């Protein structure tokens, strides 16, 4: 491009941006982490970020013009990011990340500072909230939002002095850190603005019928917080206190998005059925208002927080699929994990969900603190007794912020900090930590055995074939099976 054309482009951009306070939100590329895993059927295809849809709505409310750049949808990340910065000249750029995508957040920050040195970078999400000072050691991050950021982010945009904002951290001029205390979680979730999904091109986010019956689909949050004590969970962001939107607010939100053309929801809650009475009221409201929507409890519900009546109501109200965090087929392992459920409760819940007419997804984990080869074999045998439609197993990962991470780090079992991209449930633990009693290769061997034994079991194959014929997903199921690296599994 010649100098005259370049000047014209800059003048046009400056004219268009005059009077605007642009803010750019950037989502790291999840494909960079998960492209090499050998089992993809249990992985959820990429969906719009709920957190950024909420923060985008807050930015609009406060006079900013938000734009969301989802790099998972692009290949030439650096080029796309530079073009977006040049076009918007944003006042702030916000980045959200998990532990597994933190490495890409670092790359993004470096590109931003090289392209626009004076643009302030905001970082948030579960990883940053768990290792605040470690994250701020990277000089490219200017402000870090700890935990639930709705209130602190709005105060920041309103111009409240940073040192007076609870839950905000930053590096001071002398190189030390200011970490605003994060002493409370947001209480009245009904006061939140609706997530602004108009900031996304929803045509780029589509799921197959293996996951949900209709598109477009988005995340829907009806509650926050999990009151249970599983050792592997990071509860830094939403805490242990269960806080819920009222059934009326949930129903209004469903109606609002349904009228916008949304066809399906993935429930984002840690426990949609933690309050079973409230869950029933939501289902009753969907039926009374005739809200034409399908939904899926993908994140998982507890086996001890359902009954047949509730599951039948959920199915009638549009919930076609539920996931259960089963974890293990060893009662001894479950007892020590903090899960506080029994194998009998698991079996009963899965069978009730099937009786209610739902598809059932089971999550399993290998590598608990007291795991042995025999307990992993018990899990494989137990999984095959359950009428699951899909089962997924992963290695325990002691994510920063979880009790297990604190325990293993104090015992010197976590390997020296390196590439956090290894911290995901689809990688071998041998790259991340030393298990107290098992070699990482042994855990990986039993993961492969789980998939081979479960998915090639004659009972499962017969059940799946009949189901696919009934619901028209036979071709999609065959494609999914072909995506598995069966040489590695077998």
Description:
- The structure is a single chain.
- The chain has 490 residues and is an alpha/beta fold.
- Helices cover 40% and strands 15% of the residues.
- It has 19 helices and 15 strands.
- The strands form 3 sheets. It has a 7-stranded mixed sheet with strand order 2-1-3-4-5-6-7, with helices on both faces. A 6-stranded parallel sheet has the order 8-11-12-13-14-15. Strands 9-10 form a two-stranded antiparallel ribbon.
- The longest helix has 16 residues.
- It is globular.
- The N terminus and C terminus are likely disordered.
- The helix content, as a percent range, equals 25-40%
CATH level-four homologous superfamily name of the largest domain = tm_1862 like domain
How many structural units, i.e. domains? 2
Strand arrangement, major sheet: 2-1-3-4-5-6-7
CATH first level of the largest domain: which class? Alpha Beta
Task: Work out the oligomeric state of the chains in this entry.
Answer: single chain
- At the fold tier of CATH, the topology name of the largest domain is pyruvate-formate lyase- activating enzyme
Major sheet details: 7 strands, mixed
SS element count, helices: 19
Shape: globular
* Mean pLDDT rating: 87
Note the main attributes of this structure:
seven-stranded mixed β-sheet; disordered C terminus; pyruvate-formate lyase- activating enzyme; disordered N terminus; 490 residues; 15 strands; 19 helices; 2 domains; alpha/beta
Mind sketching the topology for me?
Elements lengths: L2 H15 L4 E6 L3 H4 L15 H12 L3 E6 L6 H12 L3 E5 L5 H14 L4 E5 L1 H5 L1 H5 L6 E3 L4 H8 L10 E4 L5 E3 L37 E4 L2 E2 L18 E2 L2 H13 L4 E4 L8 H14 L4 E8 L6 H9 L2 E9 L3 H7 L5 H13 L3 E8 L6 H13 L4 E6 L7 H8 L29 H16 L2 H14 L2 H9 L3 H4 L1
Parallel strand pairs: 1-2, 1-3, 3-4, 4-5, 8-11, 11-12, 12-13, 13-14, 14-15
Antiparallel strand pairs: 5-6, 6-7, 9-10
Helix pairs in contact: 3-8, 4-5, 9-10, 10-11, 14-16
